[in-house]
Amino acid sequence: MSRCSLPRGPGPLTIPGSTRKDASSVPTAVISDIHANATALRAVLADIEKRGVDRIINLGDIIGYGPDPLECVDLVAERCAWSLIGNHDFAVLYEPTNFNPGAEQAAFWTRAQFDKEPDEAARARRYEFLGKLRVRVVDTPPDGKIPILAVHGSPRRPINEYIFPDDVMTAVDKMKQIFDRVERLAIVGHTHVPGVFTDEPDFYPPDELGNMCYLFNDDEKAVINVGSVGQPRDHDPRASYAVLHPDRVEFVRVEYDVDKTAKRIHEVPELNDWLGDRLYEGR
Ligand code: ZN
């Protein structure tokens, strides 16, 4: 496991002891699990812009649970280089798979919001965007040397499988099968818990990484979970995302107006109150 000891902030950086001297090149912001929380998404997009990062990719679950599905789809379509399909996008577009009753009801309410859009062209454009979301992408960021596998859930079952932090202790075979499908690096979302899985196997939450940053290591495979923009579940209510550099990934947390999103959820009878309540505690 390699920890970063780097100066903070954007701009050219030279990694001490790194063989890659060109590590200062174009970064990519990786967002995931927005879950129709436009207030959180706008705060994250503003933070990305403040850092001077132009390229954004999205690992899925744009919609489901939250009150602003149309706005979130429009923002992602406009701002992201590409997007993956998550299990909640799949549920709205096709069918809910293994959803609890609250999540299923949220998916049907979300679908109704797209259906009742009066502007026929806007309705068609959004459905076309959702219909073209990708299941897996092998991304080589500009100036990047390491191809990165991107999926919503896991490299083994891209849309629906969760990789939990506890799996490194309790599901070693599962972790081995997952890492067998990773060449060097993978990025995922889905659990809403940010951190780095290594093929030891081991799991490091961002707080245990120096400067909330993980330095890629030639001797180690890693699966990086970027956390959730719109519904974090690691007991930190702030929106989570990550910035990918050619040699490292930095985890970022952004405060947003949780009250605003929670109140909007509470106003919609079809969205369970718990979906708003949980945002205050990040769980
Ligand atoms: Zn999700």
Topology diagram in text:
Layout: E1 28-31, H1 38-50, E2 55-58, H2 69-79, E3 82-83, H3 87-93, H4 101-115, H5 120-131, E4 136-139, E5 148-151, H6 167-170, H7 172-180, E6 185-188, E7 195-198, E8 202-204, E9 213-215, E10 222-225, E11 239-244, E12 248-254, H8 258-267, H9 273-281
Parallel strand pairs: 1-2, 2-3, 5-6, 6-10
Antiparallel strand pairs: 1-11, 4-5, 7-8, 7-10, 9-12, 11-12
Helix pairs in contact: 3-4, 8-9
This protein binds zinc ion (ZN).
Zinc ion binds at residues 33, 35, 61, 86, 88, 190, 192.
Verbal overview:
- By secondary structure, the protein is an alpha/beta fold.
- It contains nine helices and twelve strands.
- The strands form two sheets. The chain has a six-stranded mixed sheet with strand order 3-2-1-11-12-9. A six-stranded mixed sheet has the order 4-5-6-10-7-8, with no helix packed on it.
- 32% of the residues lie in helices and 17% in strands.
- It binds zinc ion.
- Residues 33, 35, 61, 86, 88, 190, 192 line the site of zinc ion (ZN).
Q: How many DSSP H or I helices?
A: 9
Q: Mean pLDDT, nearest integer?
A: 92
CATH fold topology:
Purple Acid Phosphatase, chain A, domain 2
Instruction: Give the percentage of residues in beta strands.
Output: 15-25%
Relevant CATH superfamily? Metallo-dependent phosphatases
Number of domains: 1
In spatial order, strands of the major sheet run 3-2-1-11-12-9
